[in-house]
Amino acid sequence: MYPDQFEFHRADSVSEAVELLADNPDAELIAGGHSLLPTMKSGLASPDALVDISDLDGLSGVERNGEVTHLGAMTTYATVADDDDLWEDATVVAEAASQVGDRQVRNRGTVGGNIAHADPASDLPAAMLAANATVHVHGPDGERSVEIDDFFQGMYATAAGEEGVVTGIDVPEEGENTASAYVKKPAPASGYALVGVAARLTFDGDEVTDARIAANGVMDHGTRLPAAEDAIEGESVDADAVAVAGDAAGDSLDEYMVMEDQQASQEFRLQLLSAYTERALETVGERAGHM
Fold first, then answer.
1. What pLDDT, in 10s, does the model give residues 72-121?
2. Which end of the chain is more exposed for a tag (fewer CB within 10 A), N or C?
3. Could you tell me the pTM of the whole model?
4. What is the CATH number of domain 63-172?
5. Strands 207-216 and 193-204
6. How distant, in Å, are the alpha carbons of 24, 29, 43, 166, 190 from that of 14?
7. Which CATH number fits domain 178-287: 3.30.70.60, 3.40.50.2300, 3.40.50.720, 3.30.390.50?
8. Strands 193-204 and 178-186: what pairing?
């Protein structure tokens, strides 16, 4: 299916991109294009205009200050997935980026575009939720920071709004007592997540003192799994605790809002959610030396 006709604008600055979005209410931003273009081809998105920000300076790269890793919005998946330090400091984000599409997609697609597009089956939203990231947005009223728990608001909807430009993401670096992982069941044809689960656990000895667990592909946007978090906190990561947390994964979700399509029923997705929550926690436990 071919997309409808659209106008094309190339922004020379973030401020100009914001102005172009304000002047064209049905416009969409495009950077790498690997999140937006598939929805345009399928008819899920039909923007009247595209605002290209791919040539803007200062929006790509990885910077560290010892506490937080900053990812410029234009940083490619490949850059994140190939960064050895990120695998140490923000494992869940690097691992999710490494599972996006294929090498060609990872070479062009961007982390900012991925979370700004907010496809419910994308890999990075759950990883960013587990990592407790902060998103930087430039909008008509200037720059602001949005906690990741407040960022995803629905299918293809975020707190950036229709006129906001995601400029970067801050990811807290994992300390020596923290470990994380991302696992997914990919759709056979597209590689998108039928279900993907990201987990980050902090330990005091063998006991989990803080848990952040999130999923893609289940609801209409990436979402935390508080029942699974509550089930594993205060426990050691052993087979019994992992099984209890896996069983609890869907308890905090409205089962009537669980996604259902030609690829998976609601029931199957919830079964996958339980199984992949267990896999994510087992992987974290192994990496932390507790299983």
1. 999 999 999 999 999 999 999 999 999 998 888 899 889 999 999 999 99
2. N
3. 0.93
4. 3.30.465.10
5. antiparallel
6. 15, 11, 28, 9, 32
7. 3.30.390.50
8. antiparallel
